[in-house]
Each structure stands twice: as C-alpha cells, then as structure tokens.
## 1
Amino acid sequence: MRNTPGVEKCLSELAALLGHAGYRDGEGDLIRHSRDASTAQACLPIAVLRPKTAEDVSAIMRICRQADLPVVPQGGLTGLSGGAVPVPDSVALSLERMNGVIEVDTINSSLTAWAGTPLETIQAAARSAGFDYPVDIGSRGTATIGGTVATNAGGIRVIRHGMTRQHLLGMEVVLADGTIITNLRSMLKDNAGFDLKHLFVGSEGCLGIITRVVLRLSPMPNDRHTALLALPDYDAALACLASARRTFQGDLTAFEAMWPAYWKLACKMVVTSRPLFSDEHQIYVLLEITGYERGHFETWLEDCFATGLVTDGVLAKSGGDAIAMWSIREAVGDVDREIGAHLNFDIGLAPSELADFARECDRELGEFVTQDILHLGHVADGNLHVIVPVPADDERRKLEIERRLFDLLAARGGSVSAEHGVGSLKRPWIGKTRSPEELELMRLLKRTLDPTDIFNPGKVIP
C-alpha cells in the first residue's frame, strides 16, 4: 500500500468527514463496489466513500491527495470496459447518494441533476414536464447520468439525437486538488473562451469527478412508430436505411440491426405472444420514426416490400407491441445466462464496413469458439456489438481473440470503442485507434489536471 501510515490517517479523516452513511468498509459494501458489469477482474477497495455534495467530494480529494490514495469514481456500475473497477489500494467514490433532479426549467428547456441520478429518473422528470431526454440505453434504470457523461454514452437514438455530448449545457466538476469548477448555466450558446466541460465528457473519471450537470431537453416526441423488418441481406439493410433517411429525414430515430445468430438467441430468451417471422432471414432491423402519420409510414413500408428491400415485417400496433420488439434488441444485456462467459466488443466503423467486418470476425475467430459469435448494433451510426463466447479462465485464448479482432478493426480504420468507453479492458488496444501524437496529448492533459495520477489510475491511457 502506498504510504501506509498516511493512508491510515487519511481513512480516519474520511470516516470523520462522511459519517456512517458516507463511509463504508464492511465486507458487503466492499464486494458490491469491487467490480462493474464488465469481465474485468474484481478488486476490493479499501473503503467506499459516499458523498452528498460537491463540497464533500472536494474535501475527499484534498484528504486523499495528501496520502497519495487513488480514487476510483463509480456511478451505476453498468460499464462494460472495466472503467469503474477499483485498483489495488484505492477507495471507491460512489455517487449513489448524489441523486435527484434539482430543477426542470421549462422556459429554457433544460434539466439540472446530481450526477448519481439514474438515467431513467432523468427521462421520467423530463416527460412529466412535457419534454424528452432522448439519450437512451438498455441499462437506463441503473446507469447514472454522470456515468453517461463520463463515457459520452450514445445508445439507441444517436441517428437523430447524437451522443450525450450534444445534450450537455453545463457541468460542475471537482478536480484532483479539490477545486470545484461550477458552470451550471443553461445557455445553448456560450463561446467565451475554452468550452471546458467537454474536457470531461468521455474522460471516464480520469480528469475529474462530475457532480452536477445541466442537460438540454428536446420536445416530447409524438406519433412514434416502430417496426421489425426481415431483409434479404446487409446491402438491402443499407438501401433501406438510405430510403428511410430520404423519406423521414430527421424523424428517423432508430435503425438497429441484428444478425441471425443473435436474433435466434434473443427470440429464445424473450417470450412473445406469437412468432414474429416464420422463416429465417439474413438480417433483421428494428426501425423507429417519429412525427409522421401511421399511413405515411405504412406507405413507405409497402414500397420497401414492392422493391424487394424487405421480405417480411411486423408493425407495432400499440405501445406494448413496441416494447416487445425493443425487448428483443435489449436482450443483449442478459445474454450471459444463455451463452455463459464471453467477450463483449463495442466497435465503431463506417456503416458500409460492418457486414464485411462481421464476416471477417466469424472467419478469423471461429477456431476459438464452440458457439456462434453474435453481432448486432446501431447500424446508422456504425456501432457494432460483437459477442464472442469464451471460457472465463482461458486468458491466453481471450488475448488472442482480442488481438485478431482489433487487428481486423485497425485495418479498416475503426474505433476500439464506439460508446462504452476504454476503461481498463481496452486500454492496451487504444493504440489501434489513436495515433502516438493523440495519445501523448491525452497524457499531457492527464498530467496537467491530475499530476499525481490519483483519479482512476490504470484506465484509458496506456
């Protein structure tokens, strides 16, 4: 342990500062905060810190910095890249008590919330005021708004609404020395100098701890229509996407593709009232639009059938139907109970490259697996999820799978992380995506804002 006498004094000061509700070191608490939803190796923190205010976080950082005690920020622990897993001899700083919507400003179309507020709570507060917060992910009930900002989460409606970055108006953040930077204004245009908040978007807790955010809200969508389509091949899916963009333009909100192996597994996992399709197809698309009358949507679908782009399809007749359709796509969050241990890749490529990349993965990785490799993703924004079954204790095989997949990706100019962050699991591979010059600039930012490497060490930057 680094500086053991100093650490013991530090822990005593932290316990006195936070009290029983804010300082936990019991076995159950340590185990709960020892890992996130990824396959990264769990690591028990020394203690779990649960502040209530930015001032608490500031005091924590001043104390921990004196003892050179690493601090690992944690939100909902839903990350898939190991970004919230403690390192040896560190404390976990959980934002679970910094929870709640502070204000919904209906005049300025904004919402202010504590960073530990679940995304689903943000969405509900926006809707109750007649607005929408459109960033949406399957783990919405657990993932926190601070975590989605720290990873620049995208989700299922990026095609229309963009990533989290596009919805951030203001932020409060605590730096490594305890300085609190507060800019919680709800202005859409503010070009007075550097836009500092964007330094921390996607930084995964390596540069500072986000404590409060101001979010830009969107108008409440109306006339939302959802359809599940079966298509003859991936080229037809791209043509269908192009047609939908021409027809519906900005009102196309989701275009999700599922390859056959994933489709069969998800349909096995999700109980539907009736079989959706009688035959097997080469690709399945979940499509959503808003702002158009149902008749217009149906006419477009008829044209897709007539031209051969779509071979079968089901149109949601109710909100319940739409939820059932989305449950097939979102079953990805629970595939481990069906396939067991696996590697979960979240890669970014040009949409035109995804099908060839999926085929290359099947070919190059086939010798390492005894079950089907699963492919699905947000085709419209080039985000593919690749799930590779592999024994949990076979580290050599996992390393070779990662090497081959990321080599294939680098050859096509892709990104090792499209929306789930780099964390610790993708840290060794970020050089496949970023140039040496880019990596050195990241290191410079880290050294400047966190010179003693106290924030989330061992994450993101190699």
Note: The longest helix spans residues 4-22.
## 2
Amino acid sequence: MPPSPEPAVSPREMVASGLCIGCGSCASAEPRAAMGWNRYGQLEPTGPREWMSGRSTDLARRCPFSPSAVDEDVIAAERFPAPADARLGRLEACYVGHAAEPGYRENGSSGGLVSWVAAELLRTGAVDAVAHVVPADPHGEGRFFRFRLSRSVGELFEGGKSRYYPVELSAVLREIRETPGRYAIVGIPCFIKAVHLARRAEPVLGTRITHTLGLFCGHMKSARFVESFAWQLDAPMRRVRAVDYRIKDAGRPANWYRAHLTLDDGSARAEDWWHLADGDWGAGFFQSAACNWCDDVAAETADISFGDAWVEPYSSDGRGTNVVVTRSPALAAMLREGIEDGRLALEPVSADFVADTQAAGFRHRREGLAYRLARRRRGPVRPIKRVAPSRAGLPLRRRLVYRMRAAIARWSHRLAWLAHAFDAPAIYTGWARRVLRIYQGLTWSNGRWGAFFDRLFGSAAKS
C-alpha cells in the first residue's frame, strides 16, 4: 500500500480523526506522555502540548492506524514464509479444538489454547515473561483490567478470560525496554500490529519481543460498557469490584454470553446478554471509532492467532472451542507436538472453515469497510487500508446496516456519558432498547420492524 503523501502526524490529529485505538505505543516512546481516560471511557494519549500537537514521522510509523505505517501484508511478509490467504493472512496450518491438558479449557473463555501456548512458551524457556491482560482493582487503579507481565503459569491463569475493555501497552513496553529478557505479547490485531511497528522502530524491542499471540477481534468496547451492565443489573457502580463478560457453563451453548458483576460484599449480579439493552454485539454499542477503519480480523501479523469456533457443533459446546491459525513454523511445530502427546485435542481444518466462523466480522471489514472508506469525510488524517473504497453493488439495506452501526456506536458514547453525568441511566438504556429493535429489524426478518423493512427493502440482510 503506498504511503500517505503527508508522512508526519500528531497524537492530537490521530485522536481528532477517530483513528486512535488507545494502544499506548506512542506514549511508551515519550517519557512525558501517558494514557488517560476521555469522557466516553476510552483511553487516549495525553502529554505536553508540544508533543500532542507536534507532527512526527516516528509516530506516523508507530501508530497502527496511521496511513504512513506499513500495513499487515508487509509486516507478515517479513516474518512468515508461509503462503497468504486473502482473509486470514499467511498461514502454516489451521485447527479447531481445545486444550486437553487439565486446567486450561476450564479457566479460559474458549478452548484454553491461548493460555496453553503462552504457558508452553514459559515452560520450554522460549520466553521469560508474557504480557497479557489481567483484572485490576477498579477503585485502587481506576480500571477493571490492565496489561501485565506474567512469569508463571499461575499468573497466566489470572488472565484467562475475555476482556471487552480498554487496555494499553505503554507500561509493559517500557518495562520490556528497561529489563533484558525474551517476551511474548498477547493482544488483539491492532495491538499486535502496534507491537511490530514498535519493534521496527526500536532494535531493543525487536530483539526482546520474540513471540506474538493474536486474538480474533470484532471491535473494542469502551469502559462505559461495564457501567451499562451495572445500570441494567441494578448494581451501584461504586460497589462493583469485578466484571466477567462471559461466564462459562458447560450446560449452555458457548455463544450464550452472560454478564456477571461481583460487588464489594461478595454478592453477584448476572444476566444473559440477550436480555440487555445493548447485548447484540454486532450492533456496535460502545465501539471505538478506530474499529471502523480496521481490516484485520484474524491478527495477521501474529505468530499464532486464536478465535472462537462460532459454527456448529462447536458453538453449542459450553466448554468452549478455539479455531487456531499458525504462521510461525516454530509454533506450528509446538502444536503438532502437543497433539502427538495428547495434550491438545485439535483437528486440522481449512482456511475456509476458519473464515466461516468469523463471517460477520469479515463482511463488516471487507464489504462494510469499502463502503465506509467511500463515505469518509471527517478528520485531518484519512485512513489508507488494504480494502479499496467502493459503494458499487451494495444494496440499500446493507448500506443502512453499516450506517446504523456507526450511528449506534457514536450515540451510545454520547448518551451513556449524558446518563452518567445526570445519574439517569434511562437516558441511555431507553434509547438503546428502542434503537436495537430498529437495528434488528434491518438485520432480521422476524418481528414488526423486520416485517416492515422486508416490505420496504426486500429480504433481511446478513448481520
């Protein structure tokens, strides 16, 4: 992909353009900078005015959404010898299954393979520590989750769940810079790309960060998503001490998400996502604006990537099942050895199988991204992606789906902030329930709104 005609950008420009995902890579390289919360519960860089407004080619090369940064194809081609798939990136092999070794599947949100691979890297001495997301003290640290370096399997298990919450890498990147060793990092696609861009910029990081483990991603949520849970579960936010987005239950299908809050007295509140005003993931509530400009579903720059097997019969198995894409020959060999030893229960599958488990995500980041790029107007920095801008052949109903998702994301931030400011949750929850019915009418055929849109635009669109 050709570079932007303007190679330098500033942190303020990236934020103003809706292209900052809050990864913290830029702040990690500037001693005076930090990552802070904005009013919508998203992380953004903060620092001296001259740094925030100063245009920098270094930032332009580090930021994963900068139009001047090299793209995923370039990074992957430098790292992996395997041939490329247009959806999943370069790949050695694909699998579906779970960790058979006790403890991993039970303690993970899916099949336990992320923790298993991370633990195996530690066990074999391939790395000295793994950077991953763990729970934090919301009242002591001001957040529910954060990145941390773990040096034992016990510490790894503290992070073995899904975390739909803003986190950032600045502290762990600084620690890796300061402490010799070999490190692995677990993260979503844009964070893994940011890590590789930092590795290109700084030889010390290039030497010390030896492994990257990617997570398939739908989009990033803001911290207000937890507050929305608290409003709808009648739990005062000041009393919430922990949040679990996906309670695992072997007796229920894996895709029946259940939100769970733990309060300060040890009691708990829980509810299935489909009973929540904003429980439809695809509608885009609290989605980061930068996610609208992402074209990487499967963490294409990671040595190995993991997703949920959202196809039958696996999605009905409440114990959890992973799909896995290996790109590094060394990690592909690690999985083969685990299978031969009976420690992993994995079956080889095709790239098509893996892509089908994420079909909605690929539509949104291929067809949908092409449409959004064709409509793009706002901000001083314009994204350059591997998907070409296009509106051609896209039915009106699909265009409305993509436009409504963007509107839901934008207005969910604003109305949740207003509800918080006035201590009036109904401002947000009432709006969310009404708009969700309209959105589901666009994407479903059942119900009053679905029948109305079917008559107006034809058969229901795929989500």
Note: The first helix runs from residue 11 to 16.
## 3
Amino acid sequence: MQNFFVKSHGLGNDYIVLNREKIEFELTKKAIIKICDVHYGIGSDGILLKVPSSVADFGMRILNPDGSEAEKSGNGLRIFAKYLYDYKYTIEKIFTIETPGGIVRAEIIEIKNEKASTIKVEMGKAIFESSKIPVDCENEECINETLHLEYRDYQINCVSVGNPHCVVLKDELDVSEIMTFGAQIETNKMFPNRINVQFAKVISPTEVEILIWERGAGWTLASGSSSCAVACIAIKRGLTERKLKIKMPGGSLKIEIDIEWNIEMTGEVREIASGIFSDELIQNLK
C-alpha cells in the first residue's frame, strides 16, 4: 500500500515506520516536523525510514522530530526489526540492519500471536575516545570531567555507542532538573554534533535508574542507546557488573557488555497503530 505507516513503541519511546519506496511525498525537514507533531501530524518521537542497503539485509534512517538525523537508536532498531518481521519483509529471526552508526544484528527472541514482541539487538562496540565521540576534551577519554554551564557545573562521562552520549551520575534523580538543564548540555559547545544526555543513579551492582534528554527530541520516556551508554559508563567507573537492568520511566531494558565493550540489548516492543496518510496531511507536508 502506498503512503502506509506503522506506529510502534519501545517502552513508551514511539516511532513511525515508513518504507521510502512506498511513500509519495518527500521527507523534508518541514514534513518530518509536521508528521511528528502530535497536533498537526501523527505524533511521535521520530521516524524510521526503510531504505536499501548494499552491506546488510536492510537499511534504516532515523529522523528526529526536529528534522535532524540520528546515527543509531536502540528502541528504534527493535521497533524496525519488529516491523520487518511482522510485515513479512523477512521470515528469518536473525538479520542485519545498516544504520548511519554502523551495522547491527537483530534477533527476534519472543513471538506472540505471530508478532515479534521481544527483540535482541547487538549494538556494536562502545567508544570512549574523545575525538571519536566527538567531545571537545583535553584528555583522551572524557570520564569524570567538568562541564561548565551558566548556572552550575556537572561531572560528565562521555561515550559513543554509534551515537554520542553524556552521562551524569547522580545520588538522586529529578525530572525537573534534566528538563531544565538537558537542552543546555545537549547544545553545549563542548559537543560539536550535540549530544544525548542521561542522568543516572546506580541502585545496585546489577541495576541502574536513568532519566533521558534525547538529542533532537528532548525529554524521552525510554531510549535503547541511552541505556547502553549508561551501562558502559557504570561499568567503566567500576560501579556495576556487566549484565545490567536499566530502569527508565517507560520501562526496563536488559543490557550485557563483554570485556571488549561489545553491547547487547534486549527488550519488548509493541505496535500502536497502522494506517494510510490522508491526502490532506500529504498536502500540508509540502
């Protein structure tokens, strides 16, 4: 079907999935913003676009609600993998997906009513080198460094899991605090490509609770790549074991990281709705 969309969520982090070969409109910045708007469009935390790939089984682009593009999304990858399996693009339970942040391996772990419900994604390798994240830091790794904002300072820890992350370890978590300072950290000059932000509280050696400010999207109920980033930093700082439960407002993910910093993430995904873009909405996208 032309102009067909699927909307799904991973722990409350919701995406619209489209097939580039089956839409009759251009995904301009204006169109992306309009589609993601909860009042004037369908409403979502972003768009996942199925595109061809010459190096993996499938290709995916990740479009943020502000019209920018992300390198990788853990929840987005699980949602996209569900879409590929549920809508018969593949009958295999293991396949690869190319993203701007690298090629990942997805595995359908659990199926309910012939629909994928739990999915594992190999998220690649964590990178701590400042220049490769990138972050403007004097040291080779940006671990426990000071970030100066206008009204306060934060001790930050940075890592790339295919996209850049800044983790702030906290004794207590406060939603109003990350809502206030998340955008300031995201857009700080220390981060040339902007950055995803997490405030994290270690609960035990196997569990961490986090709040998320997502680059290009803002306050977010859950994020797969953020969960991976926080797990990497918690392990790097010697605070936890390598198998972790990451707890977010939208739910929890299982993260496992080996001694070479390869990351696996497992979690649930659910479809919300599917449908056809109306002619009137398509006209408004132009």
Note: The longest helix spans residues 74-86.
